[in-house]
Structure formats: C-alpha cells, structure tokens
C-alpha cells in the first residue's frame, strides 16, 4: 500500500450502540465560533465539521443543526456549491458508484477508504478553523474517508477499516475517479524438492533477461520450470491472480534435493480476483502436477507478516553430502572432530560473487559425522549454522573458505551431490 498516511486512510468507523445518547454541548467559545461561521457559505457537513471533534454520537450535519439551534437561528443554506468542499459531501452516489465499478468482478470482504484532495482546500480549511476560532475542527479528508466507508459498508456488507483490507479505494477528488488497490492473498507451506534440475524460482534467461530469444527458445527462461511455477500454478488458476511472488526460507542449489519436512515458503498472489481458497483440492492438484519433482505439505492461509518471518529466519540446516577423494576414513573423522564448533571463515564463493557482495563471513559446523565410506568416496551428515556454504566448506573454494575439510585432510575433495535433510526452523 503506497502513501496511505498522506491520504488519511479510513479508521474503523465508530458504531453507535443502542441507547448511547449523543453528547454535544457548546460553551461560550463554541457559540462565538458558530456565529462567525454562519456567513461562510458552508454546507451543513462542512459547518458541522468545524465542531467535528466535539461531543460524540452525531453526524457532522447533525452537529450543524445543534449549533444553529444553540444560537436560535436557521441553519444557513448556501445557494451555490459549498465554499469549502465544493459539494464533495453531496455526491455520495457518484463516489460509491465509482468505487463499486472499480471493484466489479472481484471477491472482497474488507476494505479501506482514502482520498486525495486539492491541497488548497485542506489549507483553506485550516485557516477557516483559526478565523472562526474553533478548536474542534475535523479534517475534510478524515470525514470523507469515514463517511464513504460507512456508505460502502451499508451498501455491500463488507467491513471497512484499516485492518488487513482486501481492497483500498482511493477517491481522487480533483480528478473525479476512484483508484483501486487489490491487496495480495498469501498462502504458506513447506516444499520438498526431489529433482536435481529444478531451480526454486523462475530463472530468467541471462541473454535476453526474460524477453525471449533463440537461446532460450523464446521462453525467456534458463530452466523450463521451477518450484515457484509448479506451486503457483493451481493457486493462480484458483484465484485468477495476475502473478505471484515466491518467498522461500532461503534456497538450495538447483542440483540439491530438499528433503525432510521441507522448506517453509510463502506464496504471494498478486491482484487476485477470488480470495476464498479451498486448500484441499489445490493440494491434490499440486500433488499431481508436482509428482516426482515437488511435494508440498502443511498448506495454510498466510498473511503479509509471514513473508517477513520467512525472509528473516536464520535456522540451522542439516545436509547429506556425497564426497569423492582419496583419504582414509580415520583422517576424515579426525578432521571433523577438529572442525565442529570452530569458526570457519568463508569469503563469498566464486560461483555467487556476481550477485553477492564480496566479504568474509564466519560460520560454524554444529555437528558432523561420516555415515558411509568406500574406496575413494564417503558420505557426510552435517548440521550447520544458517548461511554456511557447504560445498565450499568441503572443497575449499581455492582457499576462499578456511579451514575447509579438504585443507584439514590435505587432499583435494569434490562434492558429488548434496541434499538438504532438514530446515530446523521450528526447534528451540
Ligand atoms: Zn462543504
Ligand atoms: Zn533468452
């Protein structure tokens, strides 16, 4: 949502409870202010709004009536359009019509209203407050947003307020138009990736940057599909969303499998037309379409704060690594006992240096053991701190990771495969 502050988005409209008597008492200053406001050519909304923060349980036009009664005069009825708002508060049918037309064909249950005003009108309103001497003035924008929200609530049964809206209506008063923002729908889950040729996210072709060229066969992609595209497919169809964004709790290499309980993710569906999602049939579709490549578990509805949680998490991870190299098993075990718990200095790996800043990070192995060994190769299970480059720790990355397993055993080593066994995000 952009610029919500400046547009004075609708606060939850105050509902009057039954038996809650309106309260409105003008003191001498209020009477004086009323007297000075009488000949200003104001509509009853703008008149009453001069006292909008005085008392409660009344609409602004009702406040205007009370003010006039306190002076024993008739409420002035200006001949032309209101000198302050120009009639903005008289055209609800237009504004409601514009808002509902903008939202046509969309499913929505909660909404927020904002408005964009000619800054001169808002400035004029503030000087009017000091000219008539009221300390109770309410801003035209705040009142407009609230009143439009109440009317849309009454018309549609949807709930207005600032809390997790599906839609934001922005009434542009100078232009006479309602701008609509459709907020995303979020779903969360965990994915297992069984395919060593599948990237986590859509990978644009490096040559054409996604435009489509001869090298990528016009697809604009380096890989035909991705975890993101497989997972998003059924959700895009179910919601009619324009696009999606995939937020993983980190990512594994393309040629690594993601096993165990899977990796947490949040899928953000942009500009959805439908928001009620039945996860059961979608889970079944996903199982069919991902068969042998991607499995999704723990599907649930999520919200925007889950994206932050997933992106900021730094859980430990467990790996299984197949290594080749001519080294006796005792030497490997010796090296592992030295390595666990000690600082590893990892300079940004050569293979990712083109997209990450070059610096040295310190990481640790939490646990390590050999699970299998034969002539010229062995298999390791490792548990590491978040952000450890495992392949580089084994191979050394030409001295950029120090110490490495290869430097500790004094023999060149090569990672043959790597699987993520577990993301330890839900453990104490
Ligand atoms: Zn007015
Ligand atoms: Zn291309």
Walk me through this protein's architecture.
By secondary structure, this protein is of the alpha+beta class. It has three domains: 4-182, no CATH class; 189-312, Alpha-Beta Plaits, CATH 3.30.70; 317-423, 2-Layer Sandwich (Alpha-Beta Plaits), CATH 3.30.70. It has 13 helices and 14 strands. The strands form two sheets. Strands 5, 6, 7, 8, 9, 10, 11, 12, 13 and 14 form a ten-stranded mixed β-sheet that branches. Strands 2-1-3-4 form a four-stranded mixed β-sheet. The longest helix is centred in the middle third of the chain and has 17 residues, at 140-156. The radius of gyration is 32 Å and the shape is elongated. 32% of the residues are buried. The chain binds zinc ion (2 copies).
Which of globular, elongated, flat, extended, rod-shaped describes the shape? elongated
Summed over residues and divided by their number, the pLDDT gives a mean of: 92
**Helix/strand order, N-terminal first:** HHHHHEHHEEEEHEEHEHEHEEEHEHE
How far is the N terminus from the C terminus? 35 Å
Helix-strand makeup class: alpha+beta
What can be said about the biggest beta sheet? 10 strands, mixed
Instruction: Please give the share of residues in helix.
Output: 25-40%
Radius of gyration: 32 Å
Oligomer: single chain
Small-molecule binders: zinc ion
Enumerate the spans where pLDDT stays under 50 for 5 or more consecutive residues: 1-6
| Strands, count | 14
**Alpha plus pi helix count:** 13
> How much β-strand is present in the residues?
25-35%
Could you say how many structural domains there are in total? 3
């Amino acid at each position: 949502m952009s610029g919500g502050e400046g547009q004075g988005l609708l606060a939850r409209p105050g509902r009057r409870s039954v038996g809650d008597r309106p309260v409105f008492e003008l003191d001498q200053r209020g009477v004086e202010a009323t007297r000075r406001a009488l000949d200003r050519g104001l509509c009853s909304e703008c008149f009453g709004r001069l006292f909008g923060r005085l008392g409660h349980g009344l609409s602004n036009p009702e406040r205007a009536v009370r003010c006039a009664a306190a002076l024993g005069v008739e409420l002035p009825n200006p001949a032309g359009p209101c000198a302050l708002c120009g009639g903005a508060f008289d055209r609800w049918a237009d504004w409601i019509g514009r808002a509902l037309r903008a939202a046509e064909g969309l499913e929505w249950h909660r909404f927020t209203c904002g408005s964009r005003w000619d800054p001169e009108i808002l400035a004029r309103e503030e000087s009017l407050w000091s000219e008539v001497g009221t300390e109770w003035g309410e801003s035209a924008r705040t009142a407009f947003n609230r009143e439009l929200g109440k009317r849309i609530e009454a018309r549609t049964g949807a709930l207005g307020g600032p809390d997790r809206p599906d839609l934001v209506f922005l009434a542009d008063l100078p232009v006479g138009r309602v701008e609509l923002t459709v907020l995303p729908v979020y779903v969360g889950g965990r994915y297992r990736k069984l395919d060593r040729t599948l990237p986590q996210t859509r990978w644009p072709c490096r040559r054409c940057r996604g435009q489509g060229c001869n090298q990528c066969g016009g697809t604009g992609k380096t890989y035909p599909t991705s975890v993101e595209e497989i997972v998003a497919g059924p959700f895009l169809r179910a919601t009619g969303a324009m696009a999606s964004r995939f937020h993983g709790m980190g990512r594994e290499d393309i040629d690594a499998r993601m096993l165990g309980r899977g990796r947490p993710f949040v899928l953000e569906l942009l500009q959805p037309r439908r928001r009620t999602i039945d996860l059961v049939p979608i889970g079944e579709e996903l199982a069919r379409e991902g068969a042998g490549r991607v499995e999704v578990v723990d599907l649930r509805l999520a919200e925007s704060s889950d994206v932050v949680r997933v992106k900021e998490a730094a859980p430990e991870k467990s790996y299984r690594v197949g290594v080749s190299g001519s080294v006796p098993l005792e030497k490997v075990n010796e090296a592992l006992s030295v390595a666990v718990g000690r600082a590893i200095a990892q300079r940004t790996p050569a293979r990712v240096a083109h997209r990450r800043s070059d610096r040295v990070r310190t990481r640790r192995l939490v646990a390590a053991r050999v699970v299998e060994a034969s002539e010229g190769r062995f298999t390791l299970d490792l548990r590491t701190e978040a952000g450890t480059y495992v392949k580089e720790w084994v191979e050394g990355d030409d001295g950029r990771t120090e110490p490495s397993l290869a430097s500790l055993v004094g023999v060149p080593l090569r990672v043959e495969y790597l699987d993520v066994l577990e993301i330890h995000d839900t453990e104490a």
